[in-house]
């Protein structure tokens, strides 16, 4: 998990450790625009976006944030040009292969969520290997949403629950929020406290629709490849300046 040497290796003094989010989720948006603004092919933006994600993962680990979830490929992204989709699938596979050893050494536990069965077989194999080899790690929990859609996730949870009801394994009056959450892709992962979206777009884009019910949302105009520790520091300052009431007074 090689990252660039940067400033702000330690938690900035204006942040309170006890008020840090336990779980940060990010919509990694703006790779293509970052490249286009520089007259570069879109694939260069995706490569730089991968570097930004590795840097953020290391930053969360350095600053004591226990979980990071990144939205890297949505169910809608299949509608992009085939050449770009093929590049992304190859990029995901290559990065996993290259970074797995260091993630194991640095105690990262990686999990992929989404409809993984639709991904190329070779990428599925790399995903399975990475999850198996980091399963017992007890450091930061890194969740990668790949071929993920929030509506799709909710529908598949409903189907799984209805199957159990039909089989007599579950009674309808036993279905509550906890039961539903156990059937989501993210079962066992705490809900995000902070959701960050880059590139200035103000929408959830079908990401963690159930899990972000009470997440604080931070929008920045910064394009994803430029999202560094200073930008993350700004997001955390905004988060710590908010009063989280969860519907109470």
Number of helices: 7
The radius of gyration computed from the alpha-carbon positions, rounded to a whole number of angstroms, is 18 Å
Q: What spatial form do the alpha-carbon principal axes imply?
A: globular
CATH architecture: 3-Layer(aba) Sandwich
Question: N-to-C terminal Cα separation, in Å?
Answer: 43 Å
Low-confidence stretches: 1-5
Q: Which strands sit side by side, in order, in the main sheet?
A: 3-4-2-1-5-6
Q: In the CATH scheme, what's the topology name?
A: Undecaprenyl pyrophosphate synthetase
Order of helices and strands: EHHEHEHEHHEEH
Average residue-wise pLDDT: 94
**What is the count of structural domains?**
1
What's the CATH H-level superfamily name? Answer: Decaprenyl diphosphate synthase-like
Total strands: 6
Main β-sheet description: 6 strands, parallel
Structural class: alpha/beta
CATH top level is Alpha Beta
Strand content: 5-15%
Q: Would you kindly provide a written description of the structure presented here, covering whatever features stand out?
A:
The longest helix is centred in the middle third of the chain and has 24 residues, at 82-105. The protein has 249 residues and is of the alpha/beta class. It has a six-stranded parallel sheet, with helices on both faces. The chain has a single domain, classed as Decaprenyl diphosphate synthase-like (Undecaprenyl pyrophosphate synthetase), CATH 3.40.1180.10. Strand 3 (109-113), helix 4 and strand 4 (141-148) form a beta-alpha-beta unit. The chain has helices spanning 31-37, 42-63, 82-105, 121-134, 150-166, 177-182, 229-240; strands spanning 23-27, 67-74, 109-113, 141-148, 194-197, 216-219. Helix 1 (31-37) packs across helix 2 (42-63) and helix 2 runs parallel beside helix 3. Helices cover 41% and strands 14% of the residues. It contains seven helices and six strands; from the N terminus they run βααβαβαβααββα. Residues 1-5 have low confidence and may be disordered.
């Amino acid at each position: 998990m090689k990252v660039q040497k940067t400033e702000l290796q330690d938690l900035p003094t204006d942040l309170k450790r006890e008020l840090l989010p336990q779980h940060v989720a990010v919509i990694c948006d703006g790779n293509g625009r970052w490249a286009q603004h520089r007259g570069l092919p879109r694939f260069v933006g995706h490569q730089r976006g991968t570097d930004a994600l590795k840097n953020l993962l290391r930053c969360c680990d350095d600053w004591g944030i226990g979980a990071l979830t990144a939205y890297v490929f949505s169910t809608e992204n299949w509608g992009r040009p085939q050449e770009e989709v093929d590049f992304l699938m190859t990029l995901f596979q290559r990065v996993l292969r290259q970074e797995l050893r260091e993630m194991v050494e640095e105690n990262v536990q990686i999990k992929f969520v989404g409809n993984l069965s639709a991904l190329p077989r070779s990428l599925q194999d790399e995903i399975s290997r990475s999850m198996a080899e980091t399963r017992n790690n007890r450091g930061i929990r890194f969740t990668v949403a790949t071929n993920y859609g929030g509506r799709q996730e909710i529908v598949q949870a409903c189907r799984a629950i209805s199957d159990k009801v039909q089989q007599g394994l579950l009674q309808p009056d036993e279905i509550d929020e906890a039961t539903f959450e156990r059937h989501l892709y993210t079962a066992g992962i705490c809900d995000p406290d902070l959701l960050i979206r880059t590139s200035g777009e103000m929408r959830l884009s079908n990401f963690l629709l159930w899990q972000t019910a009470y997440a604080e949302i931070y929008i920045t105009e910064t394009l994803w490849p430029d999202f560094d520790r200073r930008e993350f520091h700004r997001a955390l300052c905004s988060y710590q300046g908010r009063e989280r009431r969860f519907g109470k007074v």
